[in-house]
Input
Amino acid sequence: MGAISLEIYMPLIRSKIKNIFVTGGIHSGKTTVLNRVISGLPHLKVGGFRTIPIIEHGVKKGFVFESLTGDSMAFAHVSLDTDRQFDIYRYDLNVFDDLGVKSLTSALSDCDLILMDEIGMMERDSIDFRQMILNCLNSSIPVLGSFQQRATWFADLLRIRNDTTVFEVTTSNRETLPEQIISLLSI
Output
């Protein structure tokens, strides 16, 4: 009896993957990969969010949460007036509970693809935002995102899903990864 080729099953395996995430080290190219995927799918309406570093005098001092609807708020900064702290950054959970939930709710209501760039450690304490992330992952709309390698709470959440795949961005694959992801999304 001969072996059955895996290629026969690839369409079945691919059809189950709806959510695609990338992870990797700092400055590995996660956001660049996602931007190239989105550029390769210009016919799609993309909603969701990005996190953008705040650079002051050439030094990273915090992060801004930017909804793809155009709203943005700083959620972490070395001098933010809050008791919550992770590493050197003080952070405000209200940004995730407010703008984060609104951006994902909006994306669920009228977008073809939901972007989550990037999920880190500070978000883990926002119950409402985490629930909206789950709502997006469980919806029929594909999710494209990135997460920090140290965000193990999020990696654990993805590990149990059979509709999600995670790619590690490396110097050897970051140029070819966007096309691979586009072919998996096939929307």
About this structure: Residues 1-15 have pLDDT under 50 and may be disordered.
